[in-house]
Amino acid sequence: DEPTSALDVSVQSQILNLLQDLRSELNLTYIVISHNLAVVEHMATRVAVMYLGRLVEVADTDQLFDNPQHPYTKALLQSVLTPDPNLDVPDAGLGVAYPNPVDPPSGCTFHPRCVDCMDHCSVVAPRTIPTKTGLVECHLYDENQGRGRQAS
Question: What is the pLDDT of residues 108-142, one digit of tens each?
């Protein structure tokens, strides 16, 4: 979203719509790297969520935004601000501690901030688990390590 990050919302929208039109007309594929979840939801057909340089979830856009699987993806989507002055700032439950990306935590790098953390999360790195709609890297979905949740 760098080409649009400093632009007025209406101009940003025009540029993103132009990119969408060009994608359709010319059968293009884009890789969009962004912190702006609205841009991601608008532009992407498939989303890969990263935490500390690791892919933690990959899914079709609608599935990811409607039914996130990884605890970080859930927290990320819960943290989106709504432009309503009557609403409080959402608490995604991540706390204020942020791990050092140069020296990431052992095991699952998200474990210090994860609301679903289990004892082995700090020791064993999770493997990538196929789901019905994509991939998730989390012990919660690993029958050998976690609770063996079925990705919904």
Answer: 999 999 999 999 999 999 999 998 889 999 999 98
Residues 6 or more apart from 30 whose CB is under 8 A from it?
19, 23, 43
SS percent in the chain: helix, strand, coil, step 5: 30, 15, 55
Which pairing describes strands 46-51 and 134-137: parallel, antiparallel, or unpaired?
unpaired
- Go through 3-39 and write b for each residue having 16 or more CB atoms within 10 A of its CB, e for each that does not: ebeeeeeeebeeebeebeeeeeeeeeeeeeeeeeeeb
pTM, two decimals, is: 0.84
In the numeric block, the tokens 């608490």 are attached to 91
